[in-house]
Amino acid sequence: VRTPAAPSFQVVAKTGEVGAWLTAEPNHPLPLHFSEGTHVSLGQGSRGRVAAVTHGGARIELSHGSVDAEVAHLPGANWTFGAGPFEVAVTGTHLDVSWSPETGKFELSVSRGSVLVRGPFIQGAQELRAGQVCRVDVTRRLMELGQLSAEQAQRVPTPSTLPSVDLAKPAEAETSSPAVSSSSSAPRAVT
After folding, report:
1. CA pair distance 143, 167, nearest whole angstrom
2. Is residue 33 pLDDT above 60, yes or no?
3. Which residue from 163, 188, 174 is spatially nearest to 62, judged by alpha carbons?
4. What secondary structure does DSSP assign to 61-79, as a single string?
5. Residue 156: how many other CB atoms lie within 10 Å
6. Which of 111, 118, 106 is nearest to 95 (CA)?
7. Helices (H) and strands (E) in the chain, counts
8. What is the distance between the alpha carbons of residues 91 and 72, in angstroms, rounded to a whole number?
9. CB 148 within 8 Å of CB 155
10. With a threshold of 0.90, does the pTM exceed it?
11. 138: alpha, beta or left, given left = phi > 0 and alpha = psi -120 to 50?
12. Which residues of 166-187 are buried (b: 16+ CB within 10 A; e: fewer)?
């Protein structure tokens, strides 16, 4: 039995370099295309990198901004996205991740599939499924769970329209008991 080769990736039709920081232009996302079919896009003005590539996927790190990803659902898929102190594990899905170190705000929405997210003010690993959103405000020590709006749930971009994102190695952060809310419509803070 042969182990599949690690996926390679391209950035603007050139072979991507693992570990190299990428910055999307202020008015244009920066698409990354992986050989096994995964498409990742750094949002406008975002900064990130492909920190590692393995036979099952890759680790994408966001310094700031947003990333949109359509991860191919394949056996043994192992994709992770780091955004500040947050970690998102994916096996095959469509997700949007944003992180602002300046404001301490993190947002994760899942349009298709499911993910596990870990980070400050999230107790253990929180599973999010299609149609759900998780927002964390580190400054206010607040975590919100809710449903995507009808408009967000219907928006599943094609790989060519994915936004740019900046990814950086997750920073260590204090994790204490958060304020948590859960809702079947829009997220609401509970303090």
Report:
1. 21
2. yes
3. 163
4. EEEEEEEEEE----TT--E
5. 12
6. 111
7. 1, 16
8. 8
9. no
10. no
11. alpha
12. bbbebeeeeeeebebbeeeeeb
The rounded radius of gyration (Å) of the Cα atoms in the chain is 16
Which residue has tokens 């998780």? Answer: 134
DSSP strand pairing (179-182 vs 142-147): parallel
- Using DSSP's 3-state secondary structure scheme, residue 146 falls into strand
d(CA 47, CA 115): 22
The two tokens of residue 135 are 């927002």
Q: In a 3-state reduction of DSSP, which class is residue 36?
A: coil
| DSSP for residue 151 | H
pLDDT at 164 over 50: no
- Spatial neighbors of 72 by CB under 8 A, at least 6 apart, are 34, 36, 37, 38, 92
Name the helix (H) or strand (E) containing 30. strand 30-34
At 2, the pLDDT band (50, 70, 90 cuts) reads low
For residue 157, what pLDDT is reported? Answer: 40
Residue whose pair of structure tokens reads 């329209």 in the numeric block: 161
Answer whether residue 21 shows pLDDT above 50. Answer: yes
Please state the three-class secondary structure of 84-123 as a single string: CCEEEEECCCEEEEEEECCCCEEEEEEEECEEEEEECCEE
Residue for token digits 């970690």? 87
